[in-house]
Amino acid sequence: MTSTKQILGQDESSQPSYVDYEAFLAPDFSPAAYANDLVVSTNNPQDSPLDLSTPLSRVLFDAQEVDSRIDALTTRNAVPLLEFTISQNQASKRIISELDTQLKSLNDSYKQLEKEVIDKHAEADEVRHVALRLWESLRLGRSVGRCLQLGRHLEVQHSELNASDAAKMDHRALVRCSYTIVSLREVLDSKGPDEEGYGLDKVHNIRALQDSVITPLERSVRETAERIVRDFSVPANMTFSQGQEARAKLESAITALYLLSPTPPLTTSGTKHERWTPQLLLAALDTFIRLSLQASITALSRSLGQLPSLDRALAEVTLRCQNVIALEIILQENKPPSHPLLPPPSTAASATHKHPASLVQPLLAYLETGSLASYFWRTMAGSLATRVQDIAHRGGVVARTLRSNKANVGDAIRQAVLTGSQPPTVFTTGKKKKDKAAEMNWDREIAVMVGSVTNNLK
Known about the structure:
With 458 residues, the protein is an all-alpha fold. Helix content is 74%, strand content 0%.
């Protein structure tokens, strides 16, 4: 097939043209430079104004010449051009037909893939979601069932605690109730996505269980344990069996308060667990000691204004101090119970934070003292000094009587401190305990107590 370039070449050789095609086809052709040359060549530089009609006519003639040449070429070479166009069109159709076949095959393959993979994957994904929801329902159902079962156990255990006859009350039910409450906390506080208690807060029965069973019974157990600690007393005429019963009752109460004390979440760092202290237990013990101190200070302050009642007041103070010592003995002989919500201490943490060997250590650290008896007498002396100063400043018969009997009062207080610093006899049945109690030196406590009265009567 004859090319267009060959046709143009043949036409140019047969019919020469005055149009300078070489200039127009040059790569560096510039329309502005060509127009400037055309104007300069058709005008005299000294003429003013310039004649632009001649160069414009030249450009128009050139355009007409090019247009005529195009018409002549297309007319003369119509057959080759049409043949070339037909061949290109046929080639395009062949390409399109091949592409249509490939596209149809691709669409068929996609439909087959969609049928065999995508649809089945959608069905499998739906089944997977159903299985996951069934598993979540099963897990939630098990958690709900466990909580309801623990709630039922708690009700039964609490009924043993709240017997109609106080003498028949099983104080060991305090510990059982506490462990059940801790188990419920373990489930209900595990609210992570992969934990046992996830989603329980949305279950109506669980919310009802918390409001009607767990919360009121936990409060009842805590108040019962606090009351047992608050009412703990070891009278002088208590028998050994009664003392053991009082000890067991107090041990159940302090164990319950230890277990019910708030704990940090299991997801927190181990440092918080190592520094954890049983707040409910410490608060109950601190309340017991402060009530004993308050009653002792009030009784002794009143008796200093009425000396005939001093012996009775000192006997009461002695008994209260012995109660505090009995409490310290019981705490010293009891190790902290295992707490399900507290992880075992790690070796590295144990090197810096020692796990308390007995329940008395957290209390001594809380009160910042080395002995409860020493804390009792020193705290009492600090408050008693102010009361004695008030009596001395008011003057009168009471102050004169107290000054005249200062030596006798000092001796009575000294004897009360010595007697009150000895543990109750029901807790010193062994020879070692008696020897240990006899070895204790209370000279500083005696000096502080006697000085709080005699030194303020000058």
